[in-house]
Amino acid sequence: GAGVSQSPSNKVTEKGKDVELRCDPISGHTALYWYRQSLGQGLEFLIYFQGNSAPDKSGLPSDRFSAERTGGSVSTLTIQRTQQEDSAVYLCASSLAPGLAGGGDEQYFGPGTRLTVT
Amino acid sequence: TQLLEQSPQFLSIQEGENLTVYCNSSSVFSSLQWYRQEPGEGPVLLVTVVTGGEVKKLKRLTFQFGDARKDSSLHITAAQPGDTGLYLCAPRMDSSYKLIFGSGTRLLVRP
Q: From the CA of B36, how many Å to the nearest CA of chain A?
C-alpha cells in the first residue's frame, strides 16, 4: 500500500508569512507524529495525535505552531509569522496504536517538507 | 533532561571495512530503535531491541542493547556504499509513545 506522503516537498517563504504543511498517513494508522529536523541534527518531536484523544502538543516550540488532524486521517501543521529559525525539514510519521504486540509501534516516515524562510 | 549521545558524529570509511557506532545515555530505556535515513527521505526502521543484553542481526548489521538498557551499539561488517546514510538511535522511556532521537552518526562508505 501507499506510504506516508507529505506536501509540498519544498517550500520557500518570506519571513512573517504563514505556511501550511500537509501529511497523509498510512491508511488505518491511528497514531500520527510531527517532527522537525534541522540541518545535521536529529529529530525534534513536535506533536502527537492518537485516535480521538487530545493531542500531545508538548513539543511545539512556540504558539506560532499549531496542528490539526481532521477525520482521524490527514494532518496539517501550520506555522504563523514564520521566522528564519523555523527553516528545517518537517517530517511526519504514522504508526498503528503504539504498544501493540508485533511491532505495532514502528513509525513510518514521510519524505518530509523542506521549509526555507528567507 | 536526559542526555542521549551518539558517536561518532561522522564516519568515513572504505568499502569492506567494519565499523561500530554507539548510542549512550544515563537513563534507562524500556526499548530502543535504530533508524537509517538517506538524503531527502524520512528515517526507516532497522530494528527494535527490548531486552537488556539482547543482540539482533540483520544481514551484515548487528545490534546490541546494553545489559542495563542505557546504551546500544550498531556494528556493520564489510560495509558497502549502500550503507551510507544517517544512523539514528531512538530510545523510548517507560511505556511512553515518544521516541527520543539522537543527533545520529553520519556514515559515508567510499567505493
A: 11
